[in-house]
Structures are given as structure tokens and as C-alpha cells.
Amino acid sequence: MSRQPLVTLEGIRKSFGDYVAVQPLDLAIHAGEFLALMGSSGCGKTTTLRMLAGLESPSAGTIRLSGQPINHLPAWQRDTPLVWQNLALFPFLNVIENVEFALKMRGVGRAERRRRAEAWLDRMQIAEFAGRAISHLSGGQRQRVALARSLVIEPQILLLDEPLSALDAALKVRMQSVLKSLQRETGITFVYVTHSQSEAFAMADRVVIMSRGKVEQIGTPQDIYNRPGTRFVAEFLGSSNILSGRVTGSTGPHLNVDGPLGHFQVPHCDATPPQSGQEIDFSVLGALCDLGPPGGDPRPNQIDARIVGEEFEGAFATIYLEADTGQELRVQKSQADIARLEPSPGKRMAVFWRAQDCHLLPG
Amino acid sequence: MRNRPTAYGLTFALPLLVWQVVFFVLPLAFLVALSFFTVRNFRVLPDLNPGNWGVILWRQVFWQAYGVTWLLSATGSLIASVLAFPCAFGIALKLSANSRRWAVFLMVIPFFTSYLVRAYAWQVFLSDTGIINGLLAWTGLGPYALLNTPGAILVGYLTLSLPLVILLQVFSLTYVDRSLIEAAHNLRAGRLRTVFEVIIPSARVGLVIAALFAFILCFGDFVSPVYLGGGHPTTLSILITDTTKSGQQWPRAAVIALMMIGTLLATAFAAVHFAYRGARR
């Protein structure tokens, strides 16, 4: 691929005293993509974003924008607008003055900046609030003001630091589609920091999963969901059952694995196949597991377990089970299946899946 | 629905209420009454004589002193605010939390010494044979008249108000939301631009209140105009003492005092209104 990335992070490290917030990190951000940086708090995602904006300077490594190093540029000489978690709107300015701020700092004339600010207020459907105080706006309206304020300069890249975390669930979903369509229409590269899997998966073209300052996996939401790259990612996403065992050999495309919960068949992974005798982890999505009557002949890829709970999630429900070893398993089923299976706490059932649906976790 | 005071609330409010009535409202009422009393044969007699107001308000001396006092206090308050800002800015936004505590502590130290003593100390610096003229003499300059000038009064005003103004500014700047400063940088405002476009507007209420306090302290100050200004130009506080000394004219002094209180109230209301105008929009 000859396309040059818009932003590259090369060996970026950031430490605060003894605390290492970001380990050497390499990342390429392509022009026009919606990239989500996802991880739990303290994983370094926000620090990475702040380094892009020039609000922190990396302890080591190079940040390039369109190939040029920008490490030495202070925040006010970069065009990397950021949408803050608390939005950081100026309370002493009204809506349109907030939006005009960046243009004013660039020396754009009064009439011109008013015109451009009004165009963005219009686009964000908040033109009627132009003269209002920030304190007289609702959460969703403030969100739109913050976006307009950052986008009015029509930057190449927009940084977003968990901007939706203060909104209620319904508004969050609506703002997700606003953000996504805004990104598509403008073609501006969005770098979106979040701890929320649903936000990242709903909007991003690519998701970067971070943990303790390191990248765990980069991929499309589908990739990451279906084929978690590491045990950490599988655990973090929380939608898979993670099992382990010892490789005893292989049959056709499958490895034979013996574990404390039974005998399993796991597809080879493309890279280096594990040797016999090696301990491995593998995962299987709860949504791809099935439930049936327990017992019978011991089959591969089947675990008998006791139901311990059920979590209603709308069209689907997650059934939690506990195997004899104490390991928790989850199975996601549609409401129709649930009605048929009649799972009740304490009932024993068999959890089983097709060999091709489980996934070897490297490392 | 109206909030009715509860017995519990009243129990705690009562001492303050009693204090305010006994030591503020009653003396103020007495001051108002006093301004209508008559002085006959050097004796102050209860009366309803509006003549004191006429005598004071129709006198040029009063309005001259009034203008001078207002101008000097406003200048003092402005200079104190401008001088204090870089210092308060550094303490509030650049120092670590620990150093900030030390700096605030150091700002409190001037209050350990009586203001009168500090004003006297300035005489040692400012007099014709004082330290400053002594140093200037080494370079062949001077001596300059430094003491007994309006400039010396301003020096005294700053001695009085500067530490307080710095403290109040530090407190208001400490509470400026850091993400607003970062947001300004992020939107291309450089360091200096951010100070004027974001930090000062954010801290506006506190900065105005600090300036107001400086004005109030200077407006009523007696020490600087007398000991550093040498009584010239005459300020309202000097005019009050002169009036009481000349023929026991306590009622006329009361008129001046009431004019001062009125002015301070009006200034305070105007300042608070100005401070919150931006914030309330």
C-alpha cells in the first residue's frame, strides 16, 4: 500500500516519574479513517491522544503528521483539535463565540468567522442557540457546540476523548450516528478514545485495544470481536469463553486439546502452530455456543455446567453457567431459544460448540 | 412556598444577628442621627438640623478631597491588581501544590506586622536623606522629594493591599479549569493570548473582587495619606479628623463618613455587577 499514513507514532513512550503511561508504541493512522483507541482506565489511551494534540510531550519517539515530525510543535501550532470529555466549552462566551474562538485566534476577520461559525451551527442543527449561554444548553446541545468549535477550522484530524461518556444511553446512541455520519461526510480522520466497546464497535473503522500502555490488538471491529488477538483482548471484550488445555496432537485442520473441562478441537492458527505438549488458551464466543441436555457420551467441545444466572439484554439474553471446576461460562441466546430451553438457575445443561467456531489465542 | 425559619436555624443565626444589630446597624443608625445634630458652644446637641449636609456638600474642599481619595484609591487598586497578577498567576498555575502552599504562607507574613509599622518603615526608604536617595546620591542623582507625595501615598496603599490582592487572585486563578486553558491552546491560542482570552475571563469574578477589596482598603486608609503623604493632598479620612478637631464638628464628620460608606456601597455593587455580568450571560 503506497498511501502514506496521515499520522504515525514511532516508538512513542511516555512516563510520568516512575510511572510508565505509554510503552514504546507504534501506530499508523490513515487519512479519513475512524480509529478508536479502546482500553480500561490507565491503559494510556488518553495520554496517547494528548501527545497527538501536543498537550503532553512524549518521553521518547517521534510523532509525524503527513510525514513531518511534529514533536517540537507546541499545542497552539498544531491543527489537532480535541473534544474534551468535559467538553471544556468556554463558559464566559456564548455558543457562537465559542465556535468562532479558533478562527479568531487565526486572525480570521469578524464577518468571515461569523459566517463560518454560523454554517457549522447550522450543520450541527444548533443555529437557533447561537446567542445562548453555554449553561443554558442541554448535554446533547453542548456536545454539538463542542464538535462545531473543533470542526470549524476544518482540520485534517479530530481527536475525541470519551466525549459521550456524560450522556444518557439514548442520547449516546443518537450522537454515535451523528459522529459517524459527520466523519463520513467530512472525510476528516477521527481518533476516538473510549472505554466503551459498544461505542468503539459502532463507529470505528479500526479499533486499537490498549492495555498498560501497550497495543494489544489493532483491527476492524469484526476482526477483534471474532478473533481476539490475545487472552487480554478476549477477557476485555468479555463476550467469549476462555478455555485452556494441553495440545495432544492434531487431526486434520484441528489441534486436539485436553483440558480440565474435557477434550476440545481447536483450529490451527496460521502462524506458528503449537507443538504437542504445549499449554494453550483458546476462546469461543458466547453467541456461538449452544445449550442442550447434559450427560450422554463425552463429546469433544462440550462442557456440562450448572446455570447460575441470566442477564436480559433485549432481543438476546446471556446465560451464565458454572462448570464443575468453578469456571464461568456464558452463552448468548435469542429470546425464542430461551423460551424453548427453559433455563433456570441450578439446572444442569451441556454447553457445546462447533470446532471451527473456537479460536486459538496466540501467546 | 416560603421557607420558614426553624428553631434550629435560628439558634445558630441568632448570635450573628445580635452582633450585626448591636455593632453595625445601631452604630450606623446613630451615625445617621448624628449627622443631623447641632454643635453649639463646642457641645454636640441632638437636633434635626439638615444644615450639616449642606455645609459639607456645598464645600469645594469636600469634593476636592472626595475626588482625590477616589482617584488615589482607584489608581492604587489598579496598580495592585496589575502588579499582583503575574505573581498570582505564577503561584496559582505554575507552582506545584506544595510550593503553592509555601507561597501562600509567605504572602500571609506581611500581616504579622502592623500596617502602621510598615508605613513608618517606608519613611526610612523614601525620606530626603533616606535609603533610596542615599543610593541615588552614589550615582550623583537626586535628592528627589519622594516622601509626602501622592506617589508615596500609593506606595503605602500597595503595602496595605498588595498581599491581600495577590492572595485573592491566587485563589481565583487556582480554580480556573485547566482543561479550558488546554482547550485554548488546542484551538491555537498561544500562551499570552490564552491569558487574556481565557484565564482572565475565567477568573474575572475573583479578580474584580480582589481589586474591590484593594479599593475599599485604600479608600478608608488614614495611615498612608498622613505618614507618607504628609497630609497633602487631603483625603477624606484626613478631612474627617480635621473636621472633628476643628470645633467639635462631629455631625459634619458623620456626613463625610456617611458619604464614604455610600460611595463604597455603590462601588461594591457596581463592581459585583460588573464581575458577574460576564459570568451570568
Q: What do you see in this structure?
A:
The complex is a heterodimer of chains A (363) and B (281). With 363 residues, chain A is α+β, with helices and mostly antiparallel strands. Helices cover 25% and strands 35% of the residues of chain A. In chain A, the strands form 4 sheets. A 6-stranded mixed beta sheet of chain A has the order 6-7-8-3-9-10, sandwiched between helices. In chain A, helix 2 (95-105) packs across helix 3, helix 2 (95-105) packs parallel to helix 4 (139-151) and helix 3 (110-123) crosses helix 4. The model of chain A has no long low-confidence stretch (mean pLDDT 90). In chain B, helix 8 packs antiparallel against helix 9 and helix 10 (204-219) packs antiparallel against helix 13 (250-280). Chain B has helices spanning 7-34, 51-57, 60-94, 97-108, 115-126, 131-138, 150-174, 178-186, 191-202, 204-219, 223-228, 236-245, 250-280; strands at residues 38-40, 43-45. Chain B has 13 helices and 2 strands. Chain B has a two-stranded antiparallel ribbon. The longest helix of chain B is centred in the first third of the chain and has 35 residues, at 60-94. With 281 residues, chain B is mainly α. Helices cover 75% and strands 2% of the residues of chain B. Classes of the chains: A alpha+beta (363), B mainly alpha (281). The A-B interface holds A 53-55, 74-77, 79-82, 84, 86, 88-94, 101-102, 105-106, 133, 149-150, 153 and B 177, 179-180, 182-191, 193-194, 197-198, 201-202, 204, 278-281.
